[in-house]
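Researcher: Going back to the complex we discussed earlier. I've cleaned up the inputs and rechecked each line, so this should be the final set. Can you rerun the prediction on the complete assembly and write out the structure?
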Amino acid sequence: MSSQSIDHLALLPLYAAAGTAILALLADLFAGRRGAVIGVTVLGAAATVAAALTTAGAAGTFCTPEGACSWVPSWPAAVTAVLFAGLTAGVLALSVPALRLGVAPAGEFCFLLAASMAGGVTVAYAGDLITLIVGLETLTLPLYVLVGLRRYAPGERVTTEPAAASVTFFLISVISTAVALLGIALNYAATGQVYLGLLTAGSGQFERLAGVGVALLVVGLAFKVAAVPLHAWAPATYDGAPVPIAAYLSTASKLGGVLALAAVVTRLEAGVVVAALAVLTMTVGNLVALRQARMVRLLAWSSVAQAGYILAALALGGPGVPAALAYATFFVVLELIAFGAVVALRAPGADGGRIEDYRGAGRSSRWLGAALVLAFAGLAGLPPGLAGLFAKLSVVEILVSADWTWLAAVVVVNAVIALAYYVRVSAVLYTGRAVSSPRVPLSVAFALIGAVAVAVVLGFAPQVLFDAVS
Amino acid sequence: MYRDYLDATSWSAAQVLLVAMLVVPAVGAALVAVLPERLARLAATGFATVTFLLTIAPVFARDGGWFSYSPERPAVLPWTDVNLPWVPALGLEFHLGVDGISYPLVVLTGLLTVLCCAYTRERSLAALLLVLEVGILGTFLALDLILFFVFFEVVLLPMYAVIAGWGGPERRAAARKFVLYTLAGSVLLLLGVVTVVAEAGTGNLIELTSANLLPRGVQVLAFTLFAIAFAVKAPLWPLHTWLPDAHTEAPTVGSVILAGVLLKMGTYGLIRVGLGVAPDAAEAAGPVLAVFAVLAILFGALICLRQTELKRLIAYSSVGHMGFVLLGIATFTATGVQAALIGNVAHGLITGLLFFLVGTIKDRAGTGSLNQLSGLRERAPRLAGLLAFAAIASLGLPGLAGFWGEAFAVVAAVRVGGPFWLTLAVLAAVGGALTAAYFLRLLRQVTHGPATPEVRAMRPAITGTEWFAWAPLVLLTLAVGLIPALVLSNTALPIAGLLVGAP
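Model: Rerun complete. Updated structure for the full complex:
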């Protein structure tokens, strides 16, 4: 066997992302200034975006002689890598006020976030199950620390919530990874395949074994996207984590899970399991969200429900993947806006607070109120959140054309339930007297403006995205 | 095939006009939202006026398409249309057009928005009215099913905000009920639209109407979804329960837009999409729809007889009037659909005027309770006179706009023949008589009798703004009543196209 030739060009996005993490660490070590570390990380994220876009459509690398590759720079991969980098930069920008307060050490924070981005990029490009799991773990591992990374000023009330959230997240995540790995192993034992392009259902005496493997794999990955009934960790973890990290969990981390699931269901038959998860996830997520009184918990439950819509598209297998990816993209952008507005409306380093705390906020901060309403409207799938409307439309359309009208009906009924709480929160913003408006830090404003711009552009020209992910 | 004559490089003035109809109010809304309060009101009225002039204009672009009568004449022949690809992945085209069916409603929307923008003093409210106008005009203009759905959704949240932001004491509950009900309706529309597009492979309403593309099973499913969706919007009994609350709590301009044009999206949708896309199923479902329509007429009238709240009474009268419109559609005859079209416009004019009047009365007297209102004729004779005019128009006095829609809906039902339709026609006529009864009761109670303290405390004068808002509606009610051809002159061919399908 000849030594494998490696196409380093195709690996450029990963080099950029991993390099960012290392540079952030070095910058912290040698420059030691917060601004430098943050600047390096943002630049690294930008470099990752550039690398992903330039290498999109290139040939894969780490290939077998049969042509199956472990690293596949397809257009959907590039788009999702861009999303990971963008989310990383966005979340970092949202964290700047808290970092400035010294709530978390900037160097470690940036390093962990960039490492997580490298994991996300790996997930996006992964061409085999092993790379996929390694990427997924690299994506999640830094987050255990980030969720609990909280320093307290002298005299500040110390809470154990972040630590508790971190431990919950860690335990659940490790178990889910173990389950997924077991699934991969069983499937490999039965079929001998790990390359995504070559995955097949088992045959003969191994058929059952392969089926169990697929089911375990799907269940393991369902933990990552917080699909009901494997969701219980998410609201507690989101609410305990700093708000920007909660934003990252519900966008980038969830996107990683979606990508992994998409890769699996494209080739393996898991329609029934995924459809059942989808129905449960959206219904339970929406119903529980109706009763939430805390902002981040509401967003957490709504993001559980949103994962249900993505799973509905994934239940179709390969044909549903473009719709699922499109939905996931629209969703993460809108979700980032929602979390960004929450960060901007709260004091630096504060938690999300109760929904009641936002009374009148839309009157005092007109632009933040408008951004939050735009995000909620989009998540509800209604104009002016056109991006969200097209997201819903694409999922419903693919379901109906595949003769899964019943699942489409479940999706649209859930959209009605969801509107009830989105409207409730939006209305709170405009009730009562205007409160004193907080001064929005520049970095948070930049992140919000960027995310809103992306949402608006995608709202009017969604075809760009549909072309890229299909 | 229709894209051929539309070269993207050479836009005709009429096509620019169609797009401008949506762009002008949209830009207006954005500007009004950021302008200072004083200037904003003027700007809102200005933008609404420009849009109104634009909505009138298509009639001059008509001749081109009108006489190009050939054997391959499509069932829907817009006077002018514009067709641009928007999201091919979803089969969504930005396809707008106007024809005889949509034109009266388009003009009505333009008119009512001007009147409401002039009437209101709130900046944000005016901006929302312009956003609503974009959605409503878009719905009436859309010739692509998915685009129709998109615009159908545009009005939901702005209308919620109008009710929740400027409404009466129970506004939040009413607004929530409105938005959840109507979203429930429109998600069914979404399912129907997607089903049709998936089956037919196109969302182009011209093609879908011209060639009966769908197998019967799909038609039945799609029409059922459409019928329920539009029945919520119209609203048709028993799906009307959101309407009285929304009307009672909404601010005056909100009620006017809601009754005047928003409800028309339901009936228009039923004609354009329901009849156009699934004609076989529509014909088959006619009797069922007609039964519900007649029940709506009767129940609406009976509830009105017991109503003691001014705005609620007018709201329930809307349920009855929309019942007549739906009865016309359900007959599946040219007469019936024409009755529905003119009924739509007449209801928009008259009920728009009624809501302006009762909104003013309620604001000035501080109460909408019929028990506390009487003697308006003594205190404010002009206002009482206008109310009497609007009420009499609404009960369907010949010579005023309300007459044609109701009378000919009944006539159409009689003409279908058979004991079933005859019974329905008789019941609908009885409902019409009850309408007269409750409006006369309303007039007796409000305008006659001794003035109550609330009425005596009212400011009697009608301001210039109010005259400006009301006079056009009064005049048009008269005009449409005397010359129904104003609405119906260009509808015969498009309706024939709808009812027959492919020629």
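Model: Worth noting: Chain A has a mean pLDDT of 88.
Researcher: Good, that matches what I expected from the previous run.
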